[in-house]
Design a protein that fits this description.
Two copies of one chain form a homodimer. The first copy, chain A, is α+β, with helices and mostly antiparallel strands and 123 residues long. Helices cover 51% and strands 14% of the residues of chain A. Chain A has seven helices and three strands; from the N terminus they run H-H-H-E-H-H-E-E-H-H. Chain A has helices at residues 2-10, 16-24, 29-37, 43-47, 55-67, 89-92, 95-108, and strands spanning 41-42, 71-76, 79-87. A three-stranded antiparallel β-sheet of chain A has the order 1-3-2. In chain A, a hairpin with a 2-residue loop joins strand 2 and strand 3. Chain A is globular. Chain A starts with a helix and ends in a 15-residue tail after the last helix. The interface between A and B is large, with 51 and 50 residues.
């Protein structure tokens, strides 16, 4: 009940586009989701992506994704001091959206390409 | 040639997702596109949308969209002191992307709805 109230309080409207952008409407969040669509990741793995995300931005965006139940953070079975990040079912459904963004980009922005393993026609 | 150089200079990578987010990765740009998918708009029309965009943000985002050739600004034939904004062909192709965002939102964010006239299955 409290959760629903909190969510409504920060909504700009009840438009599905606006509410989704409240979660993923920035330059970094969907790049983290893009990386996670290829499989679970350690924190350091994201830092190796070519865009060069800063650690404080990565940390903030991963926390927000976990709060939204889009990403799950779990201790690594082989080293419990480390954590792995993976998409929840809800987060994995962002794949279609990331695919639509990739498809628009590769069609309309010359010189761009779709990262290996990413399916722009994902359902 | 100069334009291509400029574009490459600000790209974070050649990933189609990253380059698209460099253009539309914020909380407002795709709400402007959402409104334009329903037809041409005057500047003041955007201010009536329920999210309450501020005039300075609207002005900056519209300018950026025009610079990217996603939106066309033309004098209104009935009053040439006013301008209308409409999507270019390239901008209209963002409709599928906005549709994917709307579809994710309405499925995964309780209490949200798809704005009347917006087609989440747009091709």
């Amino acid at each position: 009940m409290r959760r629903a109230k909190k969510t409504n309080a920060v909504r700009r409207s009840n438009c599905a586009v606006a509410c989704t952008l409240d979660i993923i409407g920035d330059r970094w969040t969907l790049l983290i989701v893009r990386d996670l669509l290829l499989g679970p990741r350690y924190f350091d793995d994201f830092l190796k992506s070519p865009e060069g995300i800063a650690t404080n931005i990565l940390s903030a965006r991963l926390s927000a994704l976990c709060e939204q139940s889009l990403v799950e953070k779990t201790p690594d079975p082989s080293d419990r001091r480390r954590h792995t990040y993976q998409l929840s079912d809800r987060g994995r459904r962002l794949g279609k959206l990331v695919g639509a963004i990739a498809a628009w980009g590769v069609t309309n922005l010359p010189g761009t390409k779709i990262m290996s393993g990413l399916d722009p026609n994902r359902k």
